[in-house]
Amino acid sequence: xxxxxxxxxxxxxxxxxxENICRNLGxxxxxxxxSTFSDGEIRVEIQENVRGADVFVIQSGSHPVNDHxxxxxxxxxxxxxxxxxxxxxxxxxxxxARQDRKNKPRVPITARLVADLLSRAGANRILxxxxxxxxxxxxxxxxxxxLYASPVLLPYIKxxxxxxxxxxxxxxxxxxxxxxxxxxLNAGLALIDKRRLDANKAEVMHIIGDVKDKTxxxxxxxxxxxxxxxEAASALxxxxxxTIHACVTHAVLSGNAVNNIQDSPIETLVVTDTxxxxxxxxxxxxxxxxxxARLFSEAxxxxxxxxxxxxxxxxxx
Length: 317
What we know:
By secondary structure, this protein is α/β, with parallel strands linked by helices. The protein has helices at residues 15-25, 65-81, 110-121, 150-160, 175-185, 227-238, 257-263, 279-282, 293-304, and strands spanning 6-10, 32-36, 42-46, 54-58, 86-91, 125-129, 144-147, 165-169, 188-198, 201-208, 215-223, 243-251, 268-272, 287-290. It is globular, with a radius of gyration of 20 Å. The two termini are 25 Å apart.
């Protein structure tokens, strides 16, 4: 179906994903200058007419996070002032999502702050994938479409990891996702009980569930420093897991992440391309990237055509 009146733009966070989405839709990537002035301020110039257009801005919250967030905000403002009919911020990875509540005194709820900034800048809709916490959708007064990575991760799991598998949730919050995958795959379910010591450090306590002689697949929405992932894999190995893999939506991979993955018992880390891999991660033979471009393309097409896209929000077979 032809998509008339649609314009797709991107900042500098994930140009390859934006190009792949445009290729799937049969649309050109919109022309825009997104750079910096000599003092580091974000410079944006939309270089084509967007008056009355249905505009989608693809920009992930990847490193450097603050620069890419500011690019998105400035682009939205430029498009609004250029009289775009509707502006959808496509954030494959929603930055600051881990700061979603006050878990101790005198800390911010930055996920809410980012939601307010996006709305105030002029976004009419948000499209994202695997939010760290589902309640973030309630921080917005505009529609939020939160896709799941299951349509791209499940086929890979079925094809590459055999039948004797157990899906492992790295914490209690991930159990609903892990249970849904386990039900679809007719697999076992396990939970890692851990005590968090710091924002990026966790001590694994013990495994709840049977993993002995099974292919263990750790399922999570993001991998940051991979410290938790390394500890989880070691705990699974100690409990007799035959092989260990991880399937994660967002490859943040900051700090010593790649070394942690290399030094861990994990054989494969499967991630999507919501965040482009850093150079060191590209060279890591354990990391496998599968694309979510088709899923975002389908969502963009559905949003533009005012079709239901509820099927894209479900954990799919």
